[in-house]
Write a structure and sequence with these properties.
It is built from 9 helices and no strands. It is mainly α and 193 residues long. The chain starts with a helix and ends in a 9-residue tail after the last helix. The chain is elongated and about 70 Å long. The chain is 72% helix and 0% strand. InterPro entries: Homeodomain-like_sf (IPR009057), HTH-type_TetR-like_transc_reg (IPR050109), HTH_TetR (IPR001647), Tet_transcr_reg_TetR-rel_C_sf (IPR036271). Keywords: DNA-binding. It comes from Kaistia geumhonensis.
Length: 193
């Protein structure tokens, strides 16, 4: 495997385990089987390495949406439900990059940090994809529903990580179902004055 990829793989593992702030370039270089000079040859700074790591996670998230679309072509509501079901599993084999993105957003306060910009771009893309699915499914208030589902998913991930599998994070699909159903109902008629 080329050094650049080894460095990215090592960074991903270490950032997930210890957080972005808890890992230095020396530890990353050592875990990648290389040295700091090689790391800096591929990434001019830790900040740029963090940004590249986060962009790779964002690309994986886009592929998840593409896979859902391929599995449920022409059925945006089924895509939303499949996404919720996959995220709600929280177990082995589940993509926890949403947690990694949220963790990075918390750790990187500087709005000019390239990693912060990567997180913001990824979250905008994620929201736009969810809004588009809600709109295609002809759900009422698609932007509001997308935001509600997004917050529910992120809260579920946080609860799962902090409380465990028997906590409120395990109820994601049960909580999302009525929310989606409420957006399927026709808008209430305005009262006649």
């Amino acid at each position: 495997m080329p050094p650049r990829q080894r460095i990215l793989d090592a960074a991903r593992t270490l950032f997930f385990r210890h957080g972005i702030q808890g890992v230095g370039v020396e530890a990353i270089a050592e875990a990648a089987g290389t040295n700091k000079m090689t790391l800096y040859r591929h990434f001019e700074s830790k900040e740029l390495l963090v940004a590249e790591y986060l962009r790779a996670l964002a690309a994986e998230n886009v592929r998840v949406w593409d896979d859902l679309e391929a599995a449920h072509p022409g059925d945006p509501l089924a895509q939303i439900r499949a996404w919720l079901h996959s995220v709600g599993g929280h177990g082995e084999g589940i993509d926890h990059s949403g947690c990694a993105m949220m963790s990075a957003a918390i750790q990187i306060a500087d709005p000019e940090h390239p990693g912060r910009k990567a997180v913001e771009a990824a979250q905008r893309t994620h929201r736009e994809r969810l809004v588009a699915l809600c709109r295609s499914a002809e759900l009422r208030d698609p932007e509001l529903l997308a935001d509600q589902l997004f917050l529910l998913v992120e809260g579920s991930r946080a609860a799962y990580r902090s409380v465990g599998p028997d906590g409120p994070g395990s109820s994601l699909c049960r909580l999302a179902g009525p929310l989606i159903s409420a957006h399927q109902q026709p808008a209430a008629a305005s009262p006649v004055v």
